[in-house]
Amino acid sequence: MIPTEDASARKREIEDKLKQEQETLSFIRESLEKSDQLTKGMVSILSSFESRLMQLENSIIPVHKQTENLQRLQENVDQTLSCLDHVISYYHVTRVQRQSDISAVSKTRFERGKELLEAEFRSLLTRYSKPVPPILILDAIGGDEDMEVQADVTLEHLPEAVLQDIICISAWLLEYGRNQDFMNVYFQVRSSQLDRSIKGLKEHFRKNSATSALHSPAVQTKLKYTPTKKPPKRPGTIRKAQNLLKQYSQHGLDGKKGSNLTPLEGFDHDLRGVKHLSDDKHGAAAGKDDVLDIEIDSYIHCISAFVKLAQSEYALLTEIIPEHHQKKTFDSLIQEALDNLMLEGDNIVSAARRAIMRHDYSAVLTIFPILRHLKQTKPDFDTTLQGTAASTKNKLPALITSMESIGAKALEEFADSIKNDPDKEYNMPKDGTVHELTSNAILFLQQLLDFQETAGAMLASQESSSSASSYSSEFSRKLLSTYIYKVLGNLQLNLSNKAKVYEDPALRAVFLHNNYNYILKSLEKSELIQLVAVTHKKVEGSYRELIEQEIQNYQRSWLRVTEHLTERNIPAFQPGTKGFNDGLEELCKIQQGWAVPDKEQRDAIRQAQKRVVSEAYRAFLQCANISFTKNPEKYHRYSAEQVEEMIDKLFDTSA
């Protein structure tokens, strides 16, 4: 007997297996049903495909047979035509010969026609290409800076009808003539006109620069010279100002001691109007400077004119010359005018180099406005020459580098010349006024104010430090500040050495005082003081200390007069020595011929000296009322008021 529990477990196990088998059987049945459905669907699709294939075959077979018949007919026709051509060829021998003769004549006529078109192309270009009038060029380049509203100036190189004919001829020659010679003709003719336009502008400056007829009347009325905007500064004013200051230092100070007009006040006037200072020699120099002014002004305008004309020429060229030949043709077209401008720039550099060898550093200032204009024009220059040969694009940068180098050399040698000026005993002002070296040095530095960025770039171009490789405007400004401070230091050292020539310590003090005061007032009157303060903030205080020190040195010269008035108000008298009266007379006579051009300083020195001498003398006179001598007039020949009047006449030859 099987236990009941085992039987139940066995039964459950059998039931579970039976259930699984039933589920498996159910799955198989479902799969079979799906397979039957798929089979039926596939059979239906194949039956449909077979039916359509039979229909297509029934349609194609007749077409194929028809095509085969047509191909056979075509082959028969071709063979027939070939035979006919072979037979007919014997009947056209004479006609072929006649057609050959006709073809040769047509080719000759074609070549002749092409030659006539090329000649017409050259003729139209030559006949109607004219130099651009100088006034029209000036109107075009002057509108950028000098006018409130830019004038609409159009540079028309060719009449419109002629231009259209030239465009048509060039298109035909390129397409049918297979000839590019007309491009050479084009750049040769237009190159000549470009060069003539610039030369005409230069000649126009030579003839009309002294007048106001540089621009056309329509544009002249639009020039914006308003009270709030100064007229454009002529580059040549640099040399004129320096020559006139030299004349002023020679005539105005040496010839008019004691005048109320100081060198700085002379600066306030229009230097070009001080004609009475010029003698024949100065007049000749001024005439030469006028020529130089015109040349500089002319060159600057010619550079701008070249850019404007080159842009206009390229616009014209794009209408006539094929695109893939435009850059090369343009490069050839501008070469003559560009080379002439660069040659003229090289001549300016050479002239500056010769001026440096002669130690004529003022002449180098002419480079500054030119260099500044070249650097300002360079972006437009580069844009205009984009796509030309590297040798063409590098011409202007090479000229700029050359000018920067010669300018830096001039600046450095000028600073050295201020320090090493050997002129100690000659040309020293007898009255102790401002030395010509001082006025020239200060004026040279003042001219740099108008070209701070240019001068700073010159100095930076000679720097080998890493910061100079990509110098900024601030870096160049610091270099210029340091340079000016160096020149001032060299000038101060030179003046100290020159002052030793004077045997009289008082005249030595007056000389140094005048020069230091002139330097300080010049620095304050211009922006030089702010520029020097960029790197040396105490320069103003240093000069004030020097001026005060020299005033004190001068005042010591009066001790030999006041020492005759002792503290007890009793005249100190020794046999063989001069008394107060003689000392006063001698000192006033000598110092009356000296000069202190600055009225404010002159009055201050007089007042200080009057105060010291007058107080001592008045005290002496009170004592002199006591009868200690039988000859009181020997000790008080002058009243206190007369002594003050004598001191008021110091530094005044007209008194």
UniProtKB/TrEMBL annotation:
GO molecular function list: phosphatidylinositol-4,5-bisphosphate binding
Keyword Ligase among record annotations: no
Top-rank taxon: Eukaryota
GO BP of this protein: exocytosis; protein transport
Residue stretches in coiled coil: 4-31
GO cellular component, one term: exocyst
Pfam families: Exo70_C
InterPro entries xrefs: Cullin_repeat-like_dom_sf, Exo70, Exo70_C
UniProt keywords, alphabetically: Coiled coil, Exocytosis, Protein transport, Transport
Keyword Protein transport part of the UniProt annotation: yes
Domain Exocyst complex subunit Exo70 C-terminal: 300-648
Protein task: Component of the exocyst complex involved in the docking of exocytic vesicles with fusion sites on the plasma membrane.
Family: Belongs to the EXO70 family.
Protein name: Exocyst complex component 7
